[in-house]
Amino acid sequence: MRGADLVRLAQLAAEMPGLRIMIDHLAFVKVTGSPPDPAWIANMERFSGLPSVFCKVSRFTEQAAIQPAPLEMAYYAPVFDVVWRVFGADRLAYGSNWPPCLNAGDYCATVNVAQDYFRAKGPDAFAKVMGGNAAAFYGGPGFPALRATGNA
């Protein structure tokens, strides 16, 4: 989903509040290390009041304007800040996008970028974003070890 598709998706989500939706790959935002495109921000903000819509934090290194992708969390923080504000701890789900993420750089470093950002939000938020929300959304196991330790 991107651009005008996000507008239609928000309309659908509002019309069908029981339909659970996962926006994949941060809606393919271009990551530049600066605040993201205002149109993308406005489109993402449409989902603020739609509790059945989640966003997958994935493909961010592949969307980086610089390749190989930077490995500093600060480069991705402007995008992460937007989705954190819109979706919060309960509606974000990390996804590595492995193996395609290898085209942009190191897999472990990609995971570390997300972990660094979400760990700073506290152990409960970290556990939700790094596993618990995906399990709840897709109906998988509850990942009790993540909730207990805050580690992934």
Could you explain the architecture of this structure?
There is one protein chain. The protein has 152 residues and is mainly alpha-helical. It has one domain: Alpha-Beta Barrel (TIM Barrel), CATH 3.20.20. The protein is 46% helix and 7% strand. It is built from six helices and three strands. It has a three-stranded parallel sheet. β1, α2 and β2 form a beta-alpha-beta unit. α4 packs across α5.
Q: What is the SS-derived class?
A: mainly alpha
Domains, number: 1
Q: So what's the overall shape? A: globular
Q: Tell me about the biggest sheet?
A: 3 strands, parallel
Q: Termini distance? A: 28 Å
- Annotated CATH homologous superfamily: Metal-dependent hydrolases
What is the alpha-carbon Rg in Å?
A: 15 Å
- The total of beta strands comes to 3
Q: Which percent band covers the strand fraction?
A: 5-15%
Poorly predicted regions are 145-152
Mean pLDDT equals 90
CATH class, named Alpha Beta
- Helix content class: 40-55%
Q: Quickly give the CATH architecture.
A: Alpha-Beta Barrel
Strand order of the largest sheet: 1-2-3
H/E element sequence: HEHEHEHHH
What is the overall number of helices?
6
Query: What's the CATH topology name?
Result: TIM Barrel
Outline of the structure:
The chain has six helices and three strands. Helices cover about 45% and strands about 5% of the residues.
List the helices and strands and how they pair.
Blueprint: H1 4-15, E1 21-23, H2 38-45, E2 53-57, H3 73-87, E3 92-94, H4 107-119, H5 123-138, H6 144-149
Parallel strand pairs: 1-2, 2-3
For the structure shown, list the relevant keywords.
152 residues, mainly alpha, TIM Barrel, 46% helix, globular, disordered C terminus
